[in-house]
Amino acid sequence: MSMAALLAVSLGDPSGIAPEVIAESWLRREEQALAPFFVVGGAQVLRAAAASRGIDLPVVSIASPGDAAQMFATALPVLGDEDCAPSFGAPTVEGAKLTLHSLTRATELALSGEVGAVVTGPIAKSKLAEVGFTQPGQTEFLADASGLSHDAAVMMLAGPSLRTVPLTVHEALAAVPGLVTRSLIESKARIVARALARDFGLPSPRIAITGLNPHAGEDGRMGTEDRDVIVPAIAALLAEGLAVTGPHPADALFAAHARSGYDVALCMYHDQALIPIKTLDFDQGVNVTLGLPIVRTSPDHGTAFAIAGKGVASAGAMIAAIRMAGECARRRAA
Prior knowledge:
Isopropylmalate Dehydrogenase; 40% helix
């Protein structure tokens, strides 16, 4: 098997729902036509998480990624002996150490070409900070590991109904107007266009760019950023040949009839991008990092400690993340 067809899954926080939805994903591997994958560490946690859902999960230890393909049909392959005691709903320092090891090793394998993509489980950043994790999130971690600036790694949320990209991510709303610049809009639009062509098979993706203010500012009556910053950025991108439109009033852009007119919406701030995707595709939303030298996806939900180990968490987003990682890896390899 080509390594492009093999996926590495990082465990995420072992006290959250990631281990159980990974186990559920393996159980439904044939039904969902998932590419072969293995998990880095956490065999004991995965067994306990599977048991909480009534799954008798066969787990097999592997010494190298190449061993995973032949094992995948009959057992969930787990790379390495790193593990911790199950502690569902109550994150621990030991669990954070396992999380960081799993993320680091999975990323290394993708960067070295030993796997075609990495799928990351949700993490608890506060606990990770106690064991040396210094980045705001996994997207920035992957950018650092790839030798890129944080701005070069672009978060896209993708579901069956919609794709969105937040221009600014974890920023206070009061700071957003000062961060919305022509250069940032133009650079992120270029990254999005290249990634959708390379990894999603869209040679000329249609990018709808939202306004910042209500009604996209109404020509300066409700704020000048749309007129003075976003409109010139769109003009520059059009001059480069990109299929961009806008600025669109965000209150109407995500209606069903509007979504057919674009392939991705480039939004000005976090909630402008995440509210519509989580409303429309909460159980199938995938976080994709664009602009990296590797393929990385993740379910678009958090650790969900409150329901961990109770057998009620939906595996839909994890299944979607694994499926999308496999599809993108195949396109990139081709």
